[in-house]
Amino acid sequence: MDERERIFKQAKKDRLVVGSQGQVVLNPLYKALLSIDAEIRQLEDRIGLNPKARVALGLSIGQAKKTLADLNSELDTED
């Protein structure tokens, strides 16, 4: 996320740059930004950072909010 923010700030500052043939082109950092955004979405899904991803991982919203103390107390009561 930090790298994405850095790229975004630089690309926003210099939206248009001079290309290899001397023409004005959109900053290539925007392409890198799209790639990083896609990777971030995949990672968010993998670790369950949105409701749909949590369901796919088999987590309920209530489980996601359990504290370590809650989990330990459940283990203690199962014995």
SSE diagram, text form:
Elements lengths: L1 H12 L2 E3 L5 E3 L2 H19 L3 H6 L4 H4 L3 H11 L1
Helix pairs in contact: 1-2
How would you characterize this protein structure?
With 79 residues, the protein is mostly helical. It folds into two domains: 1-47, no CATH class; 51-79, no CATH class. It is 66% helix and 8% strand. It has five helices and two strands. It has helices at 2-13, 29-47, 51-56, 61-64, 68-78; strands spanning 16-18, 24-26. It has a two-stranded antiparallel sheet with strand order 1-2. A hairpin with a 5-residue loop joins strand 1 (16-18) and strand 2 (24-26). It is rod-shaped and about 70 Å long.
Whole-number count of domains: 2
Topology as H/E string?
A: HEEHHHH
> What is the spatial order of strands in the main beta sheet?
1-2
Number of strands: 2
Distance between the termini: 42 Å
State the helical fraction. 55-70%
Query: Which structural class do the helices and strands define?
Result: mainly alpha
Q: What Rg, in angstroms, do the CA atoms define?
A: 21 Å
The global form is rod-shaped
Helix run count: 5
In terms of quaternary structure, the protein is: single chain
Largest sheet report: 2 strands, antiparallel
β-sheet strand percentage: 5-15%
What's the pLDDT, averaged over the residues? 86
Residue stretches low in confidence (pLDDT < 50, at least 5 long) are none
